Amino acid sequence: PPHKTADHVASAHDRLEMVRLAVEDEPFLEASDVELDRPGPSFTIETLRHFQDQFGPESTVYFIVGQDAFSEITTWRSYQALFATARFIVMTRPGAKEKPLEDFIHAEISKAYQYDPKMNRYGHPEWHTISCLSITHLDISASQIRHCIEQERSIRFLVTEAVRHYIEQKGLYR
């Protein structure tokens, strides 16, 4: 990712292959290599616009993001244009308070977003919606996986078996 340092980051090709392996048994998911074909850094706004162009104006592009990443979205390139390009689904942890998320949306994105409790989403007169989806919290992060590998501890239940095998075979994160 363009906004991350290079320490302990797998190559873009390795990350793509791990995503492909992780979703290979999911019929409605597919990994895309569109960002690998671009020269230089790839930014989310360019990727979302690519898919909007590829699937046409009648299609709806959704961007699924975790609440932690969403809270840093103001650091992303052209972040306000993201909301005009795609519908957001923000994955929140159980028990996460709606108020801090609403405060963030109003302070950092747009005061025009209004919460609809029946739909559990924020609507905007000109931009796409921001929906909230509470998920079961799994205490797994990429940094935790890298740390386990550095400490030579098992990652068996943190990633799929195919991904674990790939990481071991390639010697990633060592």
How many structurally independent domains? 1
- Tell the overall outline: globular
How many whole angstroms does the radius of gyration measure? 18 Å
CATH topology: Rossmann fold
Secondary-structure class = alpha/beta
Measured as a percent range, the helix fraction is 25-40%
SSE order, one letter for each helix or strand: HHEHHEHEEEHH
Strand order of the largest sheet: 1-2-5-4-3
CATH architecture: 3-Layer(aba) Sandwich
Low-pLDDT sequence parts: none
Largest sheet, in brief, is: 5 strands, mixed
Helical run tally: 7
DSSP strand content: 5-15%
**Distance N terminus to C terminus?**
19 Å
Total strand segments: 5
Summary, kept brief:
By secondary structure, the protein is an alpha/beta fold.
Q: How is this fold's topology laid out?
A:
Blueprint (H helix, E strand, L loop, with lengths): L11 H12 L20 H12 L6 E5 H4 L8 H7 L1 E6 L5 H12 L4 E3 L4 E3 L6 E5 L7 H9 L10 H10 L4
Parallel strand pairs: 1-2, 2-5
Antiparallel strand pairs: 3-4, 4-5
Helix pairs in contact: 1-7, 2-4
Keywords: ATP-binding, NAD, Nucleotide-binding, Nucleotidyltransferase, Pyridine nucleotide biosynthesis, Transferase
InterPro entries: Cyt_trans-like, NadD/NMNAT, Rossmann-like_a/b/a_fold
Pfam family, one: CTP_transf_like
